[in-house]
Amino acid sequence: SKAEQGDVLFANIGINVGECAYVNVDFEFSIKNLALFKPKFEILNGRFLYFLLSSEYVQTEIKNKKSGSAQPFLSLETLRNHIIEIPPLETQKRIASILSTYDDLIENNLKRIKLLEETAQNIYKEWFVNFRFPNYEHTEFDKDSGLPVGWEIKKADNVYDINIGKTPPRGETQWFSLTDGIKWVSIADMNKSTVFVINTNEKITKDGVDKFNMRKASIGSVLLSFKLTVGSVAITNEEVVTNEATLKPVQPTISLVDSKVSIDKGSAGNAIDLVQFKITLFNNLSRADYSQI
């Protein structure tokens, strides 16, 4: 059946298993790899269902039932048999109304953040790429390099060491958790973040981090995607681990995560500029590519 206004979409296949969306449009569209929840409106409010399915409690319950290692999935039968508790319809509507108000506020704030990010990027480019920073007219530039006097150009591997992150075997589920352990940043988490990586789909248990000697990215590290969705940027606000690739600089740290790079504030600005330039030339940025920048 087709999705209609008031329905809820639920990702039941792939790395984003459990993510939900409320259908708030009245035009037709196609869906793929999604379960379609069609509320019986005489007993269930669609927005309430969306918030219920998005809640940590229900997410934890449902994700604990997922199957598959390389490609996680939840069968439709599992979803149909899942038991939920619902209050009376009028209570559902009041709850949904309150939470929707906060959702709208969050959405408006995210739009403002995006505008501020774009402004910051434009300022950065103007100051540190075009070198038209305040009082640049009175700054002495090196004739050979074209950089302000005192600046240097160095290869990335002269600025920080490059190390590789790890993913515990997917078949050994004891190392993965939805609630306990250290947050495990993935490409999906990066794509959902704005300035800071606040939430992750999964965590790695302390035993898993220790057993597989997983390197941690420290607070204040800047995460930058280096393949697939190249160029996504976010900052860590707590210690995290990453899945697949990690860079660790000689001075404050860098981590290449899953498809990401994390760079602590304070790392050499020129090296970061060169990384950004190189990324525009490649679909993927490998460890070898990175070290030669």
Description:
By secondary structure, the protein is an alpha+beta fold. The protein contains 8 helices and 15 strands. The strands form 4 sheets. A 5-stranded mixed β-sheet has the order 5-8-6-12-9. Strands 7-11-10-15-14 form a 5-stranded mixed β-sheet. Strand 1 and strand 2 form a beta hairpin. The radius of gyration is 23 Å and the shape is globular. The chain starts with 7 loop residues before the first strand and ends with a helix. About 13% of the residues have low confidence.
Number of strands: 15
By secondary-structure content and strand pairing, the structural class works out as: alpha+beta
Low-confidence stretches: 245-283
The biggest beta sheet is recorded as: 5 strands, mixed
Tell the overall outline: globular
* Topology order in helix (H) and strand (E) letters: EEEHHHHEEEHEEHEEEEEEEHH
Could you tell me the mean pLDDT? 80
Q: What value does the Rg take, in angstroms?
A: 23 Å
Q: Roughly how much helix do the residues carry, as a percent range?
A: 25-40%
Strand arrangement, major sheet: 5-8-6-12-9
How many distinct helices? 8
Percent range for β-strand residues: 15-25%
Q: Tell me the span between the first and last alpha carbons.
A: 51 Å
